[in-house]
Amino acid sequence: MSLTDWVTLDVGGRLISTYRSTLLSSPHSVLAKMFSPNSSLEPAKTHNGHYSIDADPDIFSVILNWLRYQKVLLPTTLTCHSVSVVAEYFGLTDLVSQLNPAPAKAVWPEVVTLDVRGRKITVNRLTVCSYPAYSTLW
Length: 138
Fold this sequence. Notes:
Helix content: 25-40%
Shape: elongated
Structural class: alpha+beta
Number of helices: 6
Oligomer: single chain
Number of strands: 5
Largest sheet: 3 strands, mixed
């Protein structure tokens, strides 16, 4: 068993072929553990000698392309969420992070308007934040 072995997978009834090294490219993933030459966790083989993977073949193709290129190539027929669920199952945390980016931080305006008893007062946000009791508001 070598890293340059050409491996044929039966993914949800569809045959998909790739190099073993592609499946090992995310070392902490379930796929790497399944296909590592040193692993005791070998996937099941079909009667034709193909490795059987119980997953949606369209989603698995996105995962396989990510393992190859480290880029998400998402067809219009799939959602980030559907791929993220399967990627999480396979332990591909970097892919999950790419599919579910952290929300952007809120940008606060430099000038704020305060309503003081019906009167509008415009002040610099830093002026308000310089007082310890109000710093948590901004």
